[in-house]
Structure formats: structure tokens, C-alpha cells
């Protein structure tokens, strides 16, 4: 049985780009953005937990093969896809990934359909910082960053960069100051996250809420899943999307 059994496949077009999406559930909307290598069974299992909590979840397909496990071949193929695609920022600092414009459009469409105070946006690993970029739209009121890992932390400057242009970071600061908190999750010694949590604390102050676990593992919600982290995400979505 496919990991995506029971999920409704759809498509979303924005800025001339069309991508597949998978949707399931009822209630307030949440966009869950997969990590490398793609929509693996572990990512879908986490999304199923969000559905079971009473949310409408949309899974955009950005790269990889939907439903396939995170084997070495799948990881290598996904890395090749993102490395040749200019929509994904890998090393540049002070730059907002172009693909986040498409994701913001998806969030706006979901909010327009479902109503309520807004939608949630959750990114993981390579896409962890995308939820922060989605805050540029007021439709996103519950951004969650799970081990944000781009730009790749080569050197101190990239290690501290949160994947936004200066102009976009100023908008995120204003939204946070106006009352929109940001939830972040990581293992404390995860080298992929680098110094980004320090930057987020500096830029957002008490509006950045960090959930940190000891150790050097990586995937807080999937491969190295922490129940405390899953519960923190679900509680955050409840608080922000059901008011």
C-alpha cells in the first residue's frame, strides 16, 4: 500500500509553475513541506498525525518520488534535482528562495477556501526556512521551522543565515512584533542547523519559541521523531488556528 493511500492528489499553479499536491483531512489548513528526499512514508506519517488532530493538510510535491522511502538512491536523485533548479537556494546568503512564492500562493488559496484566522506552514530540513518566508503573507499565522538547514552551513555566515533577503526579513520581524510567533525545533548539536536559532532569537526575540533536544541527530518529526516535538507542533497549530 502506498504511503499516500487516502490522500487526494491535486495541482496548484502560480507564477507559471504547476506542481502536484496531496490533500487530506478537515478543519483549519496546514501546508506541510517535505524534507529531502521528498514525500517519504515518514513525512506522510507525520502529516497523518496532523490530520488526525483535526486539520486539513496539503502536501506539496517539490522534488523526489512521492511515497518512496529515504534510501541512498532517492536522496542522491533529490539532491541532483534541487542542485540544478534555481528555485531552490543552496549556498547564497541574504536570499529568499523563489519557490517560496509558489508556496505562499498555495497557502493563500487554502486560506481563501477554508477561512479562519489563517493557515499553518511547516518546513523540514532543506525546506525548514520556507515556513519563515511564507510569513510574508498574512494568510500564514502558524509558521513552524523543523531543523532549518539552508543555506548549507558552509562557514559562519551561511551557518547563521535564515534564508531571507533583508527586505523580507524586515517583514517577518514586523509580523512577529505584531503578534505572530514562530516555532522552531532542532537537536541542539545538529550541525545542519548551524547558528540559525541564534539569529532567530536575535531577530524575533521572545516571538521565536525554540523546542530543542539534546544530541546530534537531525529529523525531529520524522526519522529521529520526538513525541515532545510532535506534541509541541500540534499544540501550536491548535492555539494559532482555532482562535
What is the CA–CA distance across the termini? 37 Å
Structural class: alpha/beta
Roughly what is the average pLDDT, rounded to an integer? Answer: 95
Q: What CATH architecture would you give?
A: 3-Layer(aba) Sandwich
Strand line-up in the sheet with most strands: 1-2-4-3-5-6-7-8
Specify the number of helices.
8
Rg from alpha-carbon coordinates:
16 Å
CATH topology: Rossmann fold
Strand content: 15-25%
Order of helices and strands: EEEHEHHEHEHHEHEH
Assign an overall shape: globular
Question: How many DSSP-defined strands?
Answer: 8
Keywords: Hydrolase
Pfam families: DLH
Domain Dienelactone hydrolase: 27-146
Region (Disordered): 1-24
In short:
InterPro entries: AB_hydrolase_fold, Dienelactn_hydro. The chain is of the alpha/beta class and 243 residues long.
What does this structure look like?
By secondary structure, the protein is of the alpha/beta class. It is built from 8 helices and 8 strands, in the order βββαβααβαβααβαβα. It has an 8-stranded mixed beta sheet with strand order 1-2-4-3-5-6-7-8, sandwiched between helices. The longest helix has 16 residues. The chain is globular.
